[in-house]
Write a structure and sequence with these properties.
By secondary structure, the protein is α+β, with helices and mostly antiparallel strands. It has 5 helices and 23 strands.
């Protein structure tokens, strides 16, 4: 008998709770401040923001910086899309070389790998990277020793670690892989982990400049024969790379080479008086340099500050604030100070 009485009471309670819940829901819809809903929503948003993490730079794998050939006979290159940063700097003959920096990435082919130039060391050092190259200039050889750079010179390694492929001609056909680099680094007793923070101030919330100039087509002439262009593709919110009048593709995947962020930095270059008459260049990377930060179709002027060869470059807006950088890969275009760069 008691069970027959209890069951209707339970049903009535459930119905009453449902009615109360419906009334409260309707009140919250009409008045967002009812029961402090605005406070709860704000707290939830803060929790979600805290849970977001930067994707492009994470983990404790030590970065790997590799010297990459940018001669027309070396194109296309392998691995540029997989780097969190790619530095491009002028070398002799009006050419430029690329230095992609990888972190926690597994690649079966990186290249073509070329020889070192001494000023690239400054950017390998600021990323705490293992520096990989195939040969070196006399200045680079000297500085690698004096600066204590953890380097791997492919010329002195086994052909199983650096090998020549048949679809390109020497000297534009040497490649390696991340697994081989890690093996060589361990054999040399280099650290393969790093706790260093990123050079760039990445943020998880999308950076969009309300002010700043339109930047949908960028032209960066390193020389008359070597002009880099970037074209904004709004449907993917990325920039496609063109070099030597060609839209660049990845050697392995055939995909377009693209980037989320572009940093342009103007640094004076001069011919190095080393007595060899090879037109090798010299750059003073330290000090304060003018530049631009470009992302999502807009550009702002910035200052690029580096206090020593091994210290991180600090990128600031003209008000002195460290710039926020979108979570994505970045090409750092270090170009001659008198380069006629156009941003449209």
């Amino acid at each position: 008998m008691k069970k027959k009485i209890i069951i209707p009471i339970v049903i009535i309670c459930i119905v009453a709770i449902g009615i109360c819940a419906a009334i409260m829901y309707n009140k919250m819809q009409k008045d967002p401040t009812f029961l402090g809903t605005d406070v709860v929503e704000e707290e939830n948003n803060e929790i979600i923001a805290e849970l977001k993490t930067v994707d492009i730079y994470k983990g404790d794998d030590r970065p790997i910086a590799v010297m990459i050939d940018n001669n027309k006979y070396a194109m296309p290159q392998a691995g540029l899309n997989d780097a969190y940063m790619v530095y491009e700097i002028i070398v002799e003959g009006g050419e430029s070389r690329l230095m992609p920096v990888f972190k926690g990435i597994s690649l079966e082919k990186i290249g073509p790998v070329r020889s070192s130039r001494h000023y690239f060391l400054d950017y390998a050092l600021e990323n705490d990277a293992i520096y990989v190259h195939f040969g070196w200039s006399p200045q680079a050889e000297s500085d690698i020793s004096s600066l204590g750079v953890n380097n791997i010179n492919g010329i002195s390694q086994s052909e199983k670690d650096f090998w020549r492929v048949k679809d390109k001609k020497a000297p534009h056909n040497v490649v390696t892989s991340t697994s081989k680099i890690i093996e060589m680094a361990k054999s040399k007793k280099y650290r393969t982990t790093s706790s260093q923070s990123s050079v760039l101030n990445y943020v998880t919330e999308e950076v969009n400049f309300e002010e700043g100039q339109i930047a949908e087509n960028i032209s960066i002439p390193y020389s008359q024969s070597n002009i880099v262009k970037w074209q904004y593709e709004p449907e993917i919110q990325r920039y496609a790379r063109y070099s030597k009048s060609e839209k660049q593709k990845d050697w392995t995947t055939g995909e377009d080479v693209t980037t989320k962020n572009i940093i342009i930095e103007f640094i004076a270059n001069s011919v190095l008086n080393d007595g060899e008459n090879k037109d090798r260049q010299n750059l003073t990377t330290t000090g304060s340099k003018d530049g631009y930060y470009i992302t999502n179709g807009k550009a702002i002027k910035i200052k690029c500050e580096k206090t020593s060869r091994s210290s991180k470059t600090i990128y600031k807006d003209l008000e002195g604030n460290v710039i926020k950088v979108n979570d994505g890969n970045t090409f750092v275009q270090i170009c001659p100070i008198n380069a006629n760069v156009t941003i449209e």
